[in-house]
Amino acid sequence: xxxxxxxxxxxxxxxxxxxxxxxxxxxxxxxxxxxxxxxxxxxxxxxxxxxxxxxxxxxxxxxxxxxxxxxxxxxxxxxxxxxxxxxxxxxxxxxxxxxxxxxxxxxxxxxxxxxxxxxxxxxxxxxxxxxxxxxxxxxxxxxxxxxxxxxxxxxxxxxxxxxxxxxxxxxxxxxxxxxxxxxxxxxxxxxxxxxxxxxxxxxxxxxxxxxxxxxxxxxxxxxxxxxxxxxxxxxxxxxxxxxxxxxxxx
Amino acid sequence: xxxxxxxxxxxxxxxxxxxxxxxxxxxxxxxxxxxxxxxxxxxxxxxxxxxxxxxxxxxxxxxxxxxxxxxxxxxxxxxxxxxxxxxxxxxxxxxxxxxxxxxxxxxxxxxxxxxxxxxxxxxxxxxxxxxxxxxxxxxxxxxxxxxxxxxxxxxxxxxxxxxxxxxxxxxxxxxxxxxxxxxxxxxxxxxxxxxxxxxxxxxxxxxxxxxxxxxxxxxxxxxxxxxxxxxxxxxxxxxxxxxxxxxxxxxxxxxxxxxxxxxxxxxxxxxxxxxxxxxxxxxxxxxxxxxxxxxxxxxxxxxxxxxx
Lengths: 250, 308
Known about the structure:
The structure holds two protein chains of two kinds.
Chain A: E1 5-14, E2 17-27, E3 32-36, H1 43-50, E4 58-63, E5 66-67, H2 73-78, E6 81-84, H3 96-104, H4 122-134, H5 150-163, E7 168-172, H6 180-191, E8 198-202, H7 206-212, E9 215-220, E10 223-228, H8 230-235, H9 237-244
Parallel strand pairs in A: 3-8, 3-9, 6-7, 7-8
Antiparallel strand pairs in A: 1-2, 1-4, 4-5, 9-10
Chain B: H1 2-21, H2 24-50, H3 58-74, H4 79-101, H5 107-126, H6 152-175, H7 177-195, H8 199-225, H9 235-248, H10 254-271, H11 277-291, H12 295-304
Helix pairs in contact in B: 1-6, 2-6, 2-8, 2-9, 2-10, 3-4, 3-5, 3-8, 4-5, 4-8, 6-7, 7-8, 9-10, 9-12, 10-11
């Protein structure tokens, strides 16, 4: 099977520091892949390079067979890659519905309409309601983001990415800063994302990782250390050493 | 909704009937308010909705004013010379200035737009065939079939019609899908980009729309006064429009008109007593920013318990 996302020797320097040192990765369609690794391993940098927020120093990003290396973020999004952010990144003065509706309308169809009516642009509205249901915010449609709890804001963060109908969803620590109950709700919500949406997730919570991922890639100092099934990764001594073993609570 | 329609109809009737009850000076004052109101509302589209604070909006007011003066004087006093050609010229100027300016934001955007407008000032101040520092004087008003714009009452309706049309057009735009995209950009430009919006295109389009309407205001101003001077391009013109928007209420559209009214009334009332009217204006501005940051519209809404 051809890869949906193919990263080929991605390298990114910040000055002399190599944040990514030749990361290669193949992601099959429908796959759910987790990226784990200690802080500073280059996980978020990897996302930034994939989504065009940063240009790679070397290497290529192929999506669905097309070279999208170095495209600006909005072009990458238009190809069908959506992303949620580690730090909540929403439209704070708009309502939940409008946050999702804007994301759903981002394909640009109708968005240049100067005299049209938002209410009559029905496809994005319907999509927004559908996603609100999926991320557990159907009761909060009319509320501004500022009135949501932290956990709800994180749910909306994923919802905004999902509303664009992505083929590939990049999730950057969706449970960051969440309470155990909020984490459980988020895990259920992510498990319910349709299988057609391929997922690449950065996550520190190992319960979330092992319950969600088909495969795990371990990133260490900007390189892929191990790439395998959850069981293989769990028992790999190198992983234990650099990551699990390094944690006081492990 | 019913009350709102009734209110608008009453205000409209009052504006249209004003020349029948008031003398020449108040009528002229109202016309000036309406023209500046168009200008301020066009700036509010950028400031209040797209979050682009421009300090060079005078560039388009001036281009509209100068092109109207040239066209009406040399090409014939018709509607195309008075409005169409100036509006197109302002749109083109906005396209060029916007193309460069929207690439930066915040204080750099303010500085870049200011620099462009001051370039126009410097050029018009020097160029002989534009009348240099004296500007272009003795500009005739357009001659329309069956309508004599030289009569104050007729010109009044003409200006009021443009103010109404501008209000309606902008009112539609800020509620359209495009207007909602602008609000999204105002709120979180980076996320808009991340979900797939070609943000710069939307910003440029907003800039051109605002510039075009500012050009219409400038063209009307030339016809109102019968002349245009380099002052139109000066940073003060931009600054006054900014003050009008802030006093009236940023992001409300109507605030542009009300702010223009407050500003010009204050100017004319106070300046007949003292030359230091700017002092009082400054004080008013400070009081508004401190105690009514939502401007006149915000204060009214707060009082009657309405929300935006």
